[in-house]
Write a structure and sequence with these properties.
By secondary structure, the protein is an all-alpha fold. It folds into two domains: 18-101, no CATH class; 130-210. It is 76% helix and 0% strand. The protein contains nine helices and no strands. It starts with a helix and ends with a helix.
Length: 210
């Protein structure tokens, strides 16, 4: 009887813990997508890192810490500050590349970090090549990940036509990403979902150019 009671108490504690974890993660994710304030984003990243220090077997808190730093660069104009945030993102991602090397989302985020490193023509070839390599790895792991084709399309869109880029070549990839975004449903409510809104914007730009 004591064993049964102890088991029930343990199960109840685990359920409460799981609920608290879901609530904390969801709160951070919601706040991350609402703010453009760099200090707030850094604070949210720190919160994800604290969760990761407790939930050592779950890769998502560390992933979102890295993604928060990546997202912050969209609201920064100074190149040095952008690189600093990307350095922070890379430090978190290195942990995931060691602990979860077979997760497609990890390699997509790595590709995005490489793409954001491109600040001038001098480093363009290096980081675009690294980004494409990371996306190829992500695709090997999961061909249904819409963020692969969204990021690949972005890379091509921002590549000059003389080097094989441009709107015309990017459009089919934005279209493929759009189909996958629409038809992909994840059982885990905390699963990464970023990219869909911007993909629609970019696809509209490609269509307007026709």
């Amino acid at each position: 009887m004591k064993t049964i009671v102890f088991t029930l108490i343990l199960c109840a504690a685990q359920l409460i813990h799981a609920k608290d974890y879901q609530t904390a993660m969801k709160k951070n994710i919601d706040e991350l997508f609402k703010t453009r304030n760099i200090e707030q984003i850094n604070a949210i990243a720190a919160s994800f890192k604290r969760i990761a220090s407790v939930e050592k077997n779950d890769w998502l808190p560390t992933y979102y810490a890295a993604y928060a730093y990546v997202r912050s660069t969209h609201f920064i104009s100074e190149s040095d500050s952008i690189q600093l945030q990307l350095d922070k993102a890379q430090a978190e991602l290195e942990l995931l590349l060691t602990s979860n090397p077979d997760e497609s989302e990890v390699h997509v985020l790595q590709a995005m970090i490489y793409s954001l490193r491109i600040t001038n023509p001098m480093n363009g070839y290096k980081y675009s090549s690294l980004s494409n390599e990371a996306l190829s790895k992500a695709e090997q792991l999961n061909t249904s990940n819409p963020r692969i084709y969204y990021c690949r399309a972005n890379n091509i869109y921002h590549t000059p036509k003389m080097f094989g880029g441009g709107k015309e070549k990017a459009k089919p990839l934005f279209e493929k990403a759009a189909r996958l975004f629409e038809n992909t449903n994840y059982e885990n409510p905390l699963w990464p979902y970023w990219g869909s809104y911007h993909n629609k914007q970019m696809l509209a730009k490609c269509q307007d150019a026709e």
